[in-house]
Amino acid sequence: MKHPSAVTACNLDLENLITDSNRSIATLAITTLLKTGSESSVDRLMKQISSFVVVVQAISALCQKYPRKHSVMMTFLSNMLRDDGGFEYKRAIVDCIIGIIEENPESKETGLAHLCEFIEDCEHTVLATKILHLLGKEGPRTPTPSKYIRFIFNRVVLENEAVRAGEFCGGKGGEFDCTNTLNDQLLEKVTVQMEPSEAYEVLRCVPAPSLSYNQPGMCYTLVRLPLDDPTAEAVNNIVKFLGMQPCERSDKVPENKNSHTLYLAGMFRGGLDVLVRARLALGDGVTMQVTVRSIVETPVDVILASVG
User: Fold this and answer.
1) Cα 89 versus chain centre, distance
2) Which helix (H) or strand (E) holds 149?
3) C-beta atoms surrounding 36 within 10 Å
4) For residue 75, what is the domain's CATH number?
C-alpha cells in the first residue's frame, strides 16, 4: 500500500467489516487495518483476527513497523500454530516468527521458546528440521544455551532420521553410520570418539544402543562450534551496548569480509530519534568509525562519549 495515511480516516468503518459474513470483505478489511492502524490499535486487532489465515504476512510487516509490540504479535502467532492447518499455513507462520527474531534481537528468546513448543508435536518434517537448524545457530548465543542443547537432544531421541540429520546439519554436531563387523559379539552403547581442535568442544554423545553383527546403526556427537568472527562479534556487542535497532539487516555480517557498516536507529529520552552508522574494519583488531545524527546535539554527544 503506497499511501496508507489516505485511508486512516476509514479505520473505524473498516473495523466494523472484520465480522462481515463475506469472507473476502472481512479479509480485505483486516489486511488494510494491519497496514494503516496505529501502534495503540495493535492489541485490539490481534484479538479480532485469530481466525484469519491470510494475515500472516501483514502481521510480519506490522511487527517491523512497531517492534515494541513483538511480544503481543509473537504470542498471537504461537496460538495460530496450535490451530489446525496445512503445511503452507504453518510454514508461513514459522517464517514470520523467524523473520521477527532476525529483525528484532529482543524477541529472540520469546520466539525460540514458541518454536520449541511447536515442534514438540509437529507433523511436518521440513518445518521441524528448519527450526532445529535455527536452534543450533541461535541457541548458543542466548543467555541460557543449555536449555536449547537439552531440547535438541530430546528431539534426537524422539524424532525420525530425517529430523535427526537436520539437527546436526545445523552446525552443532555429527551423525555417524556404524556397522558391527565382529560376528561373535553384540556391541552396546556404541559411540565415536572425536578429537577436535582447540576451537571446538565435544559437549555430549548419544550412543547407538546396540549393534548386532553386520547390522547398521547410528550414533551422534554434539560439538560446540567456534565463536563468530571478530567483526560479527563486534557488531553484536555494539547493538547490545547501545540498545538500538539494526536497520536493513546490517547486523548480519557476510562471511570472509574485512569491513562492514552497521546502521542503527533508536529513540533518546524525550522522544528524540537517533541514527547511528558504525563503520568497522578488521585488522590486528576491529577498528570503528561512528557517525551519529539527531535533530539536537545532546543525544549525539552522549552516544559518541559512550563509545569513545
Assistant:
1) 18
2) helix 146-158
3) 19
4) 1.25.40
Residue 180 lies in a domain: yes
Determine what percent of the chain is predicted with pLDDT higher than 70. 77
Residue 263's CATH number? 3.30.310.10
pLDDT digits (tens, 9 = 90+) for 131-148: 887 887 787 778 877 677
Domain ranges, residue 209: 173-224
The last residue of one of the domains, among 200, 224, 248, is: 224
The answer to whether residue 36 is domain-embedded is no
Ranges 59-68, 100-109, 115-124, 177-186: which has the least confidence: 59-68
As a whole number, mean pLDDT of residues 28-37 equals 75
pLDDT digits (tens, 9 = 90+) for 43-66: 766 666 554 556 676 777 777 777
Q: Are 199 and 150 in contact (CB under 8 A)?
A: no
Q: Give the E-state strand segments of the chain in sequence order.
A: 173-179, 187-190, 201-206, 208-211, 216-224, 245-246, 259-268, 272-282, 286-294
**Cell matching residue 233:** 562479534
Whose cell is 531421541? That residue is 157
Say which DSSP state 242 is in: H
CA-CA distance, 209 to 164, in Å (whole number)?
Answer: 16
Question: Is residue 271's pLDDT more than 50?
Answer: yes
> Could you tell me the three cell numbers for 26?
472481512
Contact 278, 285 (CB under 8 A): no
Pair (153, 57) in one structural domain: yes
Do 130 and 97 belong together in one domain?
A: yes
